Amino acid sequence: MKKFNILLALALGSLSLTSCLDNVDDPDVSNYIITSPTSIGETNTTIYELKQKYSNEIGTNNTFKEVVEDVIVEGVVVGNDDGGNLYQTLVIRSIDGEKAGDEKDQCIEIGIRNTWISPYFQRGQRIKINLNGLWIGNYSKTPKIGTPYYTSAGNKRLGPMLLQNCATNIELVGKPDPNAPELTPIDCTQGEGLSWLADSKNQGYMNSPRLVTVKGTIDEVQGDATKRAAMGELSGEKEPLPKIYSPKELYDAGYAVDRTLSITGQSKLKVTLRTSTQNDISYLPIPADTRSYTGILTYYSGWQIQLRHKDDIVPHIDEK
């Protein structure tokens, strides 16, 4: 009899628990929506027009200006921090011209202060951003949208906006589209694209940043350089062998390592391959053969490219 009562009690308890679970409200996920839940306004300018309007600020290194009117641009996310090599940075692109790669095919960086922003802004996601209350200018010779900050040396620089600015200034448009045309990089491995890359007249803020593919070999693993360790710029320690893209022994003040990429098909043309430390790309062994590299092209003292993800190296390098 006692056994029957115990079983009955367990059965009734199970029914009661199931009933309670069925009546539980859906979880409140409103705190996980960091962008504006309502429209921030209609797009009224292009990235190309934005660079022209603020040419004084964008064209001068470490110069920036607060925007005090509704300037609304739209673009597709083509670069984020999902691979760990672009820190607190989105790159959006808008193809407003007659074809990809012309002067109106433009990108711009958006800085957002958060440890990981790619879950909110996936590649292929179209967004609108209202610059009212934000700042636009040039950081390390790259056009950027963000807010100012002071360095440890007391210098004022254009840095990332606070995460809460997204709720008032950024709106998602639709859902991420992995087939968005903006995700197709400009081919700078041959023909017209390679000639464009080789022309130093193109090195300027109107062509920076850009999503491109280049092809070449890395000088640091060619010939005698393969077994010759470099000296770390900060630590003074020798580079470990075999060589990887970004060993901690070599990082500079920006916590990154520069490698020299000799471009295939253009004699003496070199591009800096810049890789941050401690991400999936940084630990990969550098291939000695010719590879295609896709990433964000910017101009500093010359062209430099930052990969977004280890899959931007083709053929793909499997980790050993």
In short:
This protein has helices at residues 2-22, 47-53, 55-58, 166-169, 191-198; strands spanning 64-66, 72-79, 89-95, 105-113, 126-130, 135-139, 142-150, 156-159, 161-162, 170-173, 186-187, 210-218, 256-263, 270-276, 291-299, 303-307, 313-314.
Tell me about this structure.
The protein has 320 residues and is α+β, with helices and mostly antiparallel strands. It has five helices and 17 strands. The chain has helices at 2-22, 47-53, 55-58, 166-169, 191-198, and strands at 64-66, 72-79, 89-95, 105-113, 126-130, 135-139, 142-150, 156-159, 161-162, 170-173, 186-187, 210-218, 256-263, 270-276, 291-299, 303-307, 313-314. Strands 1, 2, 3, 4, 5, 6, 7, 8, 9 and 10 form a ten-stranded mixed beta sheet that branches. The radius of gyration is 24 Å and the shape is globular.
Mean of residue pLDDT values: 89
Helix content: 10-25%
Task: Specify Rg, calculated over alpha carbons.
Answer: 24 Å
Distance between the termini: 65 Å
Shape: globular
Number of helices: 5
Structural class of the helices, strands and pairings?
Answer: alpha+beta
Largest sheet: 10 strands, mixed
The fraction of residues assigned to DSSP E strands is 25-35%
Order of helices and strands: HHHEEEEEEEEEHEEHEEEEEE
Low-confidence stretches: 2-24, 26-30
E-strand count? 17
Based on the model shown, name its key terms.
320 residues, alpha+beta, ten-stranded mixed β-sheet, five-stranded mixed barrel, globular
List the helices and strands and how they pair.
Elements lengths: L1 H21 L24 H7 L1 H4 L5 E3 L5 E8 L9 E7 L9 E9 L12 E5 L4 E5 L2 E9 L5 E4 L1 E2 L3 H4 E4 L12 E2 L3 H8 L11 E9 L37 E8 L6 E7 L14 E9 L3 E5 L5 E2 L6
Parallel strand pairs: 4-7, 4-9, 11-12, 14-16
Antiparallel strand pairs: 1-6, 2-3, 2-5, 3-4, 5-10, 6-7, 7-8, 12-13, 12-15, 13-14, 15-16, 15-17
